Structures are given as structure tokens and as C-alpha cells.
Amino acid sequence: MSSDYEQQRLRLHSEHTEQPSDEPWTDLELTLPHGRSPTGIVSVVEHVLVELTHGDVGAEFVSTSVAGVKRTQFIAVDDVGQRFQKRHFDERLGWHETTVSREAVREELVNRLTQRSSLGSDVGQNGVVGGPDKFQVVPVREL
Description:
The protein is of the alpha+beta class and 143 residues long. The protein contains 3 helices and 6 strands. It has one domain (37-142). Strands 1-6-2-3-4-5 form a 6-stranded antiparallel beta sheet. β2 and β3 form a beta hairpin. The longest helix has 17 residues, at 38-54. It is globular and about 40 Å long. Residues 45-143 form the DUF8030 domain. This is DUF8030 domain-containing protein.
């Protein structure tokens, strides 16, 4: 039979190893359409902006339509979160990068997340049926 000390040590070790190591941004994901209110969307966007400023993460919006897959990514380029790199990918045109303000990122994300989904269930440019539009926060290395 184990001593109380041994049982407590095993329990603490188990709790430590079983706890998820999720970062605060791991739940920042939306699929369009969604059921969030406009106020809820603004709250999500503000949370995203904080995470982009303080973590090594980026935000990505992916939409699929008849014209193909489009990706828009945002990554903070300064420590105060006032300037962001915006990277846009279009299957037909490739990548385009620019630097934008925090206000521009906020406005674009709120606008995109309050719109209905693009034609996600249609067949894409390469004959692939696309899924719904998706927004997520991921580590920069995964963008």
C-alpha cells in the first residue's frame, strides 16, 4: 500500500502531465457561418489582436469559392501591436504582402467574420469541393 506522500506525488505528477498545454489562442477559431452576435465578433477580434501582439502567432482567414482558395494572414510586426503584416494568397495571383495598421486589421476581421460564408460548398478551380470559410489563430511557423 502506498503512503499518503506517494499517492499525493503520483496525483500531482498525473495532473501535471494530463493538463492540456493549450495556449490562450487555441480556441480562437471560427467557421462561417456561425451563430455569434456582432458584439461577440468584435470581442473575438479584440482578443485576436491581443494574442497577435503578445504571442508568436498569426491569424488566418481561409475561404474557398468557385475561383479557388484564398488566404489572408495577419502577423504583428512591432511589439506594441500597431503595425501588422498582411499576406494574401489567391490561387490565380499568388502571394501579395503589405503592412497595415491595427485599425485596418480590426476592420477587415470584423467585416469578414460578420459576413456570410463565401461559396464554400461549390467546386473550386481545381475541381475540389471546398469546405466552409475558416478563421483561426495559429503559430507563425504554421502559416
